[in-house]
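Q: Here's a chain of 217 amino acids. Please give me its 3D structure as tokens.
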Amino acid sequence: MSIRIAVVDDHHVVRKGLIYFLETYHDFTIVGEAEDGEAALTLVEKVQPDIVLMDVIMPGINGIEATKKIKQKWPTVHVVVLSSSAERESVIPALQAGANGYQLKEVDPEMLAETIRAVCSGESRLHPKVTKHVLTRMNGDESEEEKRLRDLTNREKDVLRELAKGQSNKEIASELHISEKTVKTHVSNIFWKLDVHDRTQVALFAIKYGISEYDRF
């Protein structure tokens, strides 16, 4: 049976190039394309592909957040991240979001085709350059910052996510249905546990670990 593929990438030339390449295989069928995460969610709901090739850095809903939403709503849809980044900050979040594979855009075309087939058969495939991040994670070699994140309570994590969005104490209180005084206490605890001194540092921390984009805890 033909593998039904959806291609998601915000660069038109890259997206069309992928489609052109994939269409050369008799066992692949392109069922749609999207230029960002939001469009990808609409596409998946409409066509129910076997696999989504997902870029990471896109405007609006990025590839990591879109992957998480897809896997939550359509768990049988496979997602392979196809990115130009082999950095830990992209790889680990993508896999935590539920990606079934992670390949780099520099990958040999035949290897990409094999990855698609393998993932659709229930396997996981990672580019050699990103495997080290997974092994490091499995060995528990977390950075001090990651350890600090994991020391936060569940409610502090909720508040941190709102801080990452630039919300004020009043807005956070309204969103989480707690008092502003309680929010202030949580914010103070977050600053102390993460060893930061202001909201700007919290925002930078959030950007580094993608905390505003998906649940990484």
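Q: Can you summarize the key feature?
A: The longest helix spans residues 180-194.
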